[in-house]
């Protein structure tokens, strides 16, 4: 699938797929498995490494020398962009929403260690920074660089393709292990990961519900974004058109993006204490809470095989002192 596109092989693939033995018993779902894209390899991994393999492949094919992207101070996407730039010998410029903190922690600390050049925008929200990319690109070109712009979360057709390819990888593993989930639960930010999984499931003719747990924006907004990403990808790569079944649940956003409440803390601790898995506080913690609540409420039947898709993000754990304090 998409073998003709330029790609830098950076991630450690396939990522593991395994049972969540203890959690499965505890929440009463007989067949509960996890796909470990928190283990894509370099620099603490995560879902963006898959996307960036194709993005950087395209950047190199276009003779670019600098990756420019945007995000929040604790952006996992920015950290993985900095890592991919480091291993491919490119320069990395990060535009981060927020004030420069006195002390660098978590992903921000790692960005610095990976050699990224960072510019802070105290008055902007992360997604607003997409609008600044053009301006910064012009300045970099004036300086004689050949930059490549990556929008927040690599939410662009070339960032959707890798998750269609990931679905193919997953499908091979599911067949080998004879595990056939009825649904996949995955955290959603910009929507590219879910869009790619939906595209992949369609191309492989798989009947699996892909349930996106949004942490950033309300349901209708995310549905539109995922639909738009799929349509743009179909157009760009001249694929057959189809109508995706986009399922988004916005009941687990809590008090807002990156705000940790007691329920999310409990979900993170449950995954850790039961099966030794660290979820992250911003994305997978909320998706993990969704899985637990749905199972306990009977919305996932005990005989309904379910896959939890771990998308990474653990470095942000070290910026939340309230974790592990109880
Ligand atoms: C750990 C983690 N999970 C999930 C997501 C959401 O992925 P997407 O933006 O493709 O929806 C992100 C995005 O930054 C992330 O860092």
Explained architecture:
The protein is 40% helix and 16% strand. It is built from 10 helices and 10 strands. The chain has 2 domains: 193 residues, Rossmann fold; 108 residues, Rossmann fold (3-Layer(aba) Sandwich), CATH 3.40.50. The chain is of the alpha/beta class and 326 residues long. The mean pLDDT is 96. The protein has a 6-stranded mixed sheet with strand order 1-2-10-7-8-9, sandwiched between helices. A 4-stranded parallel sheet has the order 5-4-3-6, with helices on both faces. The radius of gyration is 19 Å and the shape is globular. Bound molecules: pyridoxal-5'-phosphate.
Which kinds of small molecule does this entry bind, naming each only once?
pyridoxal-5'-phosphate
Total domain units: 2
CATH topology of the largest domain: Rossmann fold
User: How far do the termini sit from each other?
Assistant: 47 Å
Strand order of the largest sheet: 1-2-10-7-8-9
How many alpha or pi helices?
10
CATH class of the largest domain: Alpha Beta
Q: Could you say what the CATH architecture of the largest domain is?
A: 3-Layer(aba) Sandwich
Low-confidence stretches: none
DSSP strand count: 10
Biggest beta-sheet profile: 6 strands, mixed
Structural class: alpha/beta
Mean pLDDT: 96
Radius of gyration (CA) equals 19 Å
What proportion of the residues is helical, as a percent range? 40-55%
């Amino acid at each position: 699938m998409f073998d003709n596109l330029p790609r830098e092989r950076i991630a450690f693939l396939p990522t593991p797929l395994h049972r969540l033995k203890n959690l499965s018993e505890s929440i009463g779902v007989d067949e509960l498995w996890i796909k470990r894209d928190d283990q894509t390899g370099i620099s603490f991994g995560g879902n963006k490494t898959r996307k960036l393999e194709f993005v950087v492949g395209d950047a190199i094919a276009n003779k670019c020398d600098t990756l420019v992207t945007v995000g929040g101070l604790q952006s996992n996407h920015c950290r993985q962009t900095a890592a991919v730039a480091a291993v491919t010998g490119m320069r990395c410029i990060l535009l981060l929403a927020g004030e420069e903190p006195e002390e660098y922690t978590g992903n921000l600390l790692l960005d610095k260690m990976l050699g990224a050049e960072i510019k802070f925008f105290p008055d902007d929200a992360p997604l607003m920074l997409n609008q600044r990319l053009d301006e910064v690109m012009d300045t970099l070109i004036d300086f004689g660089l050949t930059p490549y712009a990556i929008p927040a979360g690599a939410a662009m057709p070339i960032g959707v393709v890798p998750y269609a390819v990931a679905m193919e990888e997953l499908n091979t593993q599911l067949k080998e292990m004879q595990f056939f989930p009825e649904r996949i639960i995955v955290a959603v930010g910009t929507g590219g990961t879910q869009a790619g999984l939906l595209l992949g499931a369609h191309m492989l003719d798989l009947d699996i519900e892909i349930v996106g747990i949004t942490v950033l924006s309300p349901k209708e907004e995310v549905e539109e974004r995922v639909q738009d990403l799929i349509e743009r990808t179909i157009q760009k790569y001249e694929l057959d058109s189809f109508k995706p079944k986009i399922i988004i649940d916005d009941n687990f956003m809590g008090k807002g993006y990156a705000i940790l409440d007691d329920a999310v803390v409990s979900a993170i601790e449950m995954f850790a204490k039961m099966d030794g898995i660290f979820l992250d506080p911003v994305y997978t913690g909320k998706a993990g809470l969704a899985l637990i609540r749905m199972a306990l409420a009977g919305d996932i039947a005990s005989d309904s095989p379910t896959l939890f898709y771990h998308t990474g993000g653990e470095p942000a754990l070290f910026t939340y002192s309230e974790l592990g304090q109880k």
